[in-house]
From TrEMBL:
It comes from the Bacteria. Belongs to the periplasmic pilus chaperone family. Residues 21-144 form the Pili assembly chaperone N-terminal domain. InterPro entries: Ig-like_fold, PapD-like_sf, Periplasmic_pilus_chap, Pili_assmbl_chap_C_dom_sf, Pili_assmbl_chaperone_bac, Pili_assmbl_chaperone_C, Pili_assmbl_chaperone_CS, Pili_assmbl_chaperone_N. This is Molecular chaperone. The lineage of its organism: Bacteria, Pseudomonadati, Pseudomonadota, Gammaproteobacteria, Enterobacterales. Residues 167-225 form the Pili assembly chaperone C-terminal domain.
């Protein structure tokens, strides 16, 4: 029997309808002053599921063997019974102060739902899909100078034709679900602006200085918060 597994990666923005095992969070915040943080997995199917999980530094092609991160994730492999759940524990194992102390750092949690081997299919070709979900893990230093709820006040947008030059002067990652003007979306997909950095964002139509924008920011809980800004 030919046995082929295809891997499908999902970046989680909402619960996947394809995977039996889902991650209850859409993002994870790891405060520096906590010993560990947890992530809840839920098996919505009726059959047991085998899960493999690991963290990486923004490498979608990473594997548990190649990923090098200052975190310990347990359990790395676990069987989750149908209609049941399992917690993953993430513990920072790096040296104190080894990550930037003036801004967040981001990592990615991978959860691979490995399909069970089908029985009584000898002599038949078989293709199965192993679904890999990925969500962001933000490591947040304890002594950042501003509140995360004020993030939007540290964002600015410079209009340049069919581009917006977005500046983030906050110590937090700015995850923007959409940018719109007069009810029309200006970007085709979400963007994330790193702390203390700028990002050039292509727009679906020209923008001008003094133009009102509505942005949807993703907060710590995965909810959208709407703010109105004006371009420069």
């Amino acid at each position: 029997m030919k046995y082929v597994i295809i891997f499908l990666t999902l970046i989680i923005t909402s619960f996947s309808s394809l995977a039996n095992v889902i991650i209850s969070n859409t993002r994870v915040i790891y405060p520096e002053d906590q010993k560990e943080t947890t992530v809840q997995l839920i098996n919505r199917g009726t059959s047991p599921a085998l899960i493999q999980a690991w963290l990486d530094e923004n490498d979608p092609n990473s594997t548990p063997e190649t990923a090098q991160v200052p975190f310990l994730l347990t359990p790395p492999v676990v069987k989750i019974e149908g209609d049941s759940g399992q917690q993953l524990r993430i513990r920072f194992t790096g040296a104190a102060g080894s990550l930037p102390q003036n801004k967040e750092s981001v990592y990615y949690l991978n959860v691979l739902d490995i399909p069970p081997k089908q029985e009584n299919l000898d002599g038949k070709n078989l293709m199965q899909i192993a679904i890999k979900s990925r969500i962001k893990v933000f490591y947040r230093p304890a002594n950042l100078k501003i509140a995360v709820s004020d993030l939007h006040t540290y964002l600015s947008f410079n209009a340049q034709g069919n581009q917006l030059i977005a500046s983030n002067n906050a110590p937090y990652f700015a995850s923007i679900a959409t940018i719109s003007a007069h009810g029309k979306a200006l970007i085709r997909e979400p963007v994330m602006i790193a702390p203390f950095s700028t990002l050039t964002i292509g727009t679906t139509e020209p923008v001008s200085g003094g133009q009102a924008l509505d942005i949807l920011l993703v907060d710590d809980y995965g909810s959208y918060q709407k703010y109105s800004l004006t371009t420069k």
